[in-house]
Design brief:
Elements (H helix, E strand, L loop, with lengths): L1 E14 L2 E7 L11 E5 L7 E4 L2 E3 L2 E7 L3 H7 L6 E8 L12 E5 L28 E8 L2 E9 L10 E6 L8 H6 L4 E5 L6 E2 L12 E5 L2 H10 L4 E4 L15 E4 L2 E4 L6 E3 L10
């Protein structure tokens, strides 16, 4: 973890209440997909955690959804504004066990607190090749703001046609870059809660068949439903309320087969098999 000052190059809306934030600064501490940054905002005691969408030497791209006062404040900041960031937080995904047809599933924006299999997610496409191959993430609310966590980061020689994608959104207005996946010939299953685009239903009910390993992120109820819906091994990026973002306050612990773990420090990515889910009433 490092504390660095970044400068806003772009802060623009890309979907309903969703913004792309492009920054310039020192990205050396970012070493793995699935890590996140913590942004300090003037007048706010707690930082806002947001996942890394893409990074290169001196450049960083984030996506966030306005979900509270903090992200609303962030959305008003103009290019040229300097931001204090903690960078290189969290562990990240391991793509070694992905197999020939990894299945990527996510949900969480908007509907997370009113549906056990919540829908709504952000799917982010970077570049077809080069330093930023396909990279997708989900987003969910954490402490009144959106904590976005990448799904997975696949090698440049990945056969995109053999990668399975299930994208869940609350409504068509929140769909983000699904067309860009299709333009690359990547099989995409789009589901919306209200049926305004793609099938109507929940993402956990529309999982493509034939996957070899699952990568997922979203709210806990959705992830628990996913674990019941697929026998595949996999990795989950968990949602938790966070205070410090680097493991000191112990405010984001979850129960695992290895005891209590901190989502921000030991995670946010855990294997599907190690999570101990609460018993349903």
């Amino acid at each position: 973890m490092q504390q660095r000052v970044f400068t806003i190059a772009e802060n623009a809306p890309v979907a309903r209440d969703t913004y792309r934030l492009q920054l310039t600064g020192d990205t050396a501490a970012i070493t793995a997909p699935g890590q996140f940054v913590d942004i300090r905002l003037a007048g706010r005691f707690l930082r806002r955690p947001v996942s890394v969408c893409s990074w290169s030497d001196g450049a960083l791209t984030l996506y966030y959804k306005v979900a509270g006062a903090g992200t609303a404040q962030l959305s008003t900041l103009a290019p040229g504004t300097e931001l204090d960031l903690l960078v290189g937080l969290g562990n990240g995904f391991d793509t070694v066990p992905a197999g020939a047809r990894p299945l990527l599933v996510g949900g969480g924006v908007g509907a997370i607190f009113r549906s056990a299999a919540a829908l709504g997610m952000d799917a982010v496409l970077l570049t077809e090749a080069g330093s930023d191959p396909l990279y997708r993430r989900a987003a969910r609310v954490s402490m009144g703001t959106v904590f976005q966590v990448p799904w997975t980061y696949l090698p440049a020689d990945t056969d995109w046609q053999e990668t399975l994608h299930a994208l869940g959104f609350r409504t068509a207005a929140e769909v983000l870059l699904a067309d860009a996946f299709c333009a690359l010939g990547i099989p995409v299953t789009v589901v919306t809660e209200d049926g305004t685009r793609g099938a109507r239903g929940f993402v956990t009910e529309a999982l493509p068949e034939g996957g070899t390993y699952v990568y997922a992120c979203g709210p806990m109820p959705m992830l628990q439903a996913l674990c019941s819906a697929t026998p595949l091994d996999g990795q989950l990026s968990l949602e938790a309320r966070m205070g410090c973002g680097f493991g000191a306050c112990m405010g984001c612990t979850c129960e695992t087969t290895h005891g209590s773990k901190r989502v921000c420090k030991d995670g946010p990515v855990f294997t599907k098999e190690e999570i101990l889910w609460p018993q349903q009433p």
